[in-house]
Write a structure and sequence with these properties.
single chain, 328 residues, alpha/beta, 7-stranded mixed beta sheet, 5-stranded mixed beta sheet, 36% helix, globular
Length: 328
């Protein structure tokens, strides 16, 4: 438990999830105003834990004034609609998270079309394109459409908890937000940085058709370098344990990016390859189970190598795919 001079407590709750990342840490900022930072997936167990958590801290649902979503992934946002129904809380998120949280029909169709095309053009066999449908099924099981009442982009103070301000921390998603308390250097970092594992920079569609695909790993590296310059002394992550020296961990993660990029570059020594072929080579044991994650990992590091002019993507018209080759 964290307490400040303004008597705002930071109360953590660990909620199991059905995902490989494991449990999620959600946080309650408890003071004159009460804010939930993320809410967990839409499961019976998550709801019951959250309900008990409030009661154990002397609160009822109507005491929750607002929900702050670090990003749209369902382990963070899935219970939002249920929480709003019971509390009438205001939901806060980044503008680009809104169509995911509300499950805007046109945007979700754009999302699905983007991934079908991206996968096909990067060598994923048609038989595996069902991952797009499985993503939709997962969304439907572990979340439901929820409103977003206020958007923030970074730098705003949190109403009722003015010692906390938002920080834009993109990379894991392009709409990721954290909360930072300057007086003691504490950050509620969501999935921006996780102590035990690297936080995957997921490929996402552009917000509108016709825009260029975001390059998430490049965005994430820029964000990590920016956050390392802030006097963040500790991070409370949405997964795993507290991070006591964020700048040191960031430096390590950046080096690991460089190492992985070099390994991928070396895999191209004996000839051009697609993203999917590289995914099979680097992740032979898990690529079928974790295709979206492993595909994002490879494509992100190829973006980094392209930025450094060490590889280039070549469109093969007769195969209707991109192949990557080393730049000599």
């Amino acid at each position: 438990m964290e307490r400040t001079n303004q008597s705002i407590e930071v109360l953590p709750l660990k909620i199991p999830t059905p995902f490989s990342v494991g449990p999620i840490n959600v946080f309650l900022l408890k003071g004159e105003s009460c804010t939930l930072v993320d809410v967990g997936p839409k499961t019976k167990e998550a709801f019951e834990l959250l309900d008990r958590f409030l009661k154990e801290n002397g609160l009822a649902w109507h005491n929750i004034d607002q929900v702050f979503l670090t990003h749209q992934h369902v382990d963070h946002s899935g219970l939002t609609a249920e929480v709003v129904t019971r509390s009438d809380a205001k939901v806060i998120a980044h503008p680009d998270a809104v169509p995911y949280v509300t499950m805007d029909e046109a945007f979700m169709q754009h999302h699905d079309d983007f991934f079908r095309t991206l996968y096909e053009e990067n060598g994923v066999p048609r038989a595996l394109l069902g991952y797009v449908e499985r993503f939709k099924e997962m969304m439907a099981i572990y979340s439901e459409p929820a409103p977003v009442h206020q958007t923030m982009t970074g730098g705003e103070k949190l109403e009722g908890c003015e010692e906390w301000r938002t920080v834009f921390t993109p990379g894991h998603t392009q709409n990721h937000l954290a909360l930072y308390r300057e007086q003691d250097g504490l950050m509620l970092s969501g999935d921006f940085l996780i102590k035990e594992i690297s936080s995957n920079a997921f490929v996402e569609p552009p917000m509108r058709s016709g825009q260029k695909r975001p390059r998430p790993l490049l965005v994430y590296r820029d964000a990590m370098q920016r956050i390392a310059e802030i006097l963040v002394r500790r991070m409370l992550s949405a997964h795993g344990e507290e991070i006591e020296n964020p700048a040191e961990l960031i430096a390590y993660r950046l080096r690991r990016n460089d190492d992985r990029a070099e390994k991928i570059r070396e895999l191209l020594t004996d000839g051009d390859k697609t993203v999917f072929e590289l995914t099979q080579l680097l992740f032979p044991a898990i690529y079928l189970k974790e295709l979206p994650l492993t595909f994002s990992e490879i494509l992100g590091h190829l973006d980094l190598l392209e930025e450094r002019k060490q590889v280039e993507a070549v469109w093969i018209e007769k195969e209707h795919i991109y192949r990557y080759k080393q730049v000599k």
